Input
Amino acid sequence: MSTSPTLRRMPTYFLSHGGGPWPYLQGPMRARFALLEAALKDIPQQLPEQPRAVLVVSGHWEEINFTVSSSPNPGMVYDYYGFPEEAYRIRYPAPGSPELATRVSELLSGAGWTVRHDPQRGFDHGTFSLLTPMYPKADVPIVQLSLKSTLDPEEHFAAGQALASLRDDGILIIGSGQSYHNLANWGAGNAGNAAVFDGWLRRTLLRGSPQDRRAELVEWAKAPAARESHPREDHLIPLMVAAGAALDEPATCVYGEFLMGMASSSFRFGADRTPSKFDSLSATGKR
Output
């Protein structure tokens, strides 16, 4: 995958992806995610051009070794429960990219990791819930990269650094998870911990130097309300890859709200730092 001189560097993103197959639902469930949907629809306008492909690091896929999806025509992974029967028949028919899968594998293996290809892996909801609003025509190739089951933040940050050159080749890197992910507390009226952790995350990403940002992120479990917000860090670790791939570029919050009573935010690394109209948390005073 050669670099074209006409391509400009892509930003990277950490995106909160919401619940299950929400873009395919109607009624109150869909309406609950209206601000998130609007923020996701805006992302293509934030990019220098349409990406050649998207690499999604999903909080819903863990393997012993880093693993890349390599099918040219990925299927679907219905990794949720309790939704209407039609939610288990939905399709997001975007193509895969064996070429990008090979490049990702080369970069990670060149940095010292064992990397596996999975030609059977389909799109989980950490991928299609984001890409459906962003690219409803499903016309941009997508490759997924698993987390390592160690969930080690330093290792995933370093993996992001190893992948950073993809940005200069027109590849959009997205870490897909959730800035707050304690399912036991969603909608339970215990929003304090979520707001405290969200405030720490914003200060770390938006105000710290790149060096301080890395140091704070790899020690995220020491942050205030960290384990109350992420009893298990699978939905936070994709942030480490996105931040690692960002190198020393600044961060911007591109979405924020109290979603089902809990603070939920998304961030862009690189490009301009214009405040986002989709960040309703910026004026709450809870930072």
Remarks:
- Residues 12-269 form a domain with the Protocatechuate 4,5-dioxygenase; Chain B fold (CATH 3.40.830.10).
- The chain has one domain: 12-269.
